[in-house]
Structures are given as C-alpha cells and as structure tokens.
Amino acid sequence: MELVTEAEGAVAVIGQRREVARHCAWCGRRLPDHGRIGRPRRYCAQPCRQRAYERRAAVQRGGLPEDAVVLSSTELADLQDRLFQLRCAAEDIMTAAEDGAGGDELRGLAAGVVDAARGLERLR
Fold first, then answer.
1. CA distances (Å), 65 to each of 69, 70, 97, in order?
2. What is d(CA 74, CA 80) in angstroms, rounded to the nearest whole number?
3. pTM of the entire structure?
4. Which stretches within 1-124 are classed as H helix?
C-alpha cells in the first residue's frame, strides 16, 4: 500500500507500508490481521496470554534472568525429537544426492526439511 500526493499534477510516493506477518508470542501461530487500530496483538488467544503470564511469574519467583528460557522435561524431549527429525531429513537429502537422485526426489526431500524446520520454529 503506497501513500501518494498530487501536487501540481505530479505524483510523489511518500512512503510504503510493509505487511509483516505477526506471530503469537507464546505458541508461534500466525496472528490474524484485524486492522491497525489500537495496540498490536501479542497472543492468538486468552490461553496463550495466560500461559505466558504464568511463565513470567514463575521466572520472577525463581530469580532467573528475564530473558531466560525455561522448558519442562517434556518440552525439552519434544524439542530434541524435532531436532532429530530435522537432522534425519537433512541426512536423507545428502544420501539421495550421493546416490544420484533426480530433481523431483530431491525437491520432495527438501520439502521434508522445510516441514521439520517449521516444526522447530515453535518451542511449545
């Protein structure tokens, strides 16, 4: 979307707005774009807002630095599983390339790497 003015028949571009996708600060889901009035949303829903509040309160009680990332053992195991899936997907591409796989097969394997990486973008 461009803002333009017309002065004496000339059109000048004043500025451009970039549309940037925003994501929930808790779960990482993409936030819906509901106009520009008010403060931008940080969370997709009330449960995400509540979990973030509980996590901040727990960090403050524990005396940890504010930028600390706290994961439960279940969350850590899940993260490790997703990292393992990403490594395996990348190894599949290497093996297929060494075996002389065609472009279509490599594209399919690369799509698997992209899916695994997207899974890693969300921490919870």
1. 9, 11, 45
2. 10
3. 0.50
4. 46-62, 73-98, 103-121
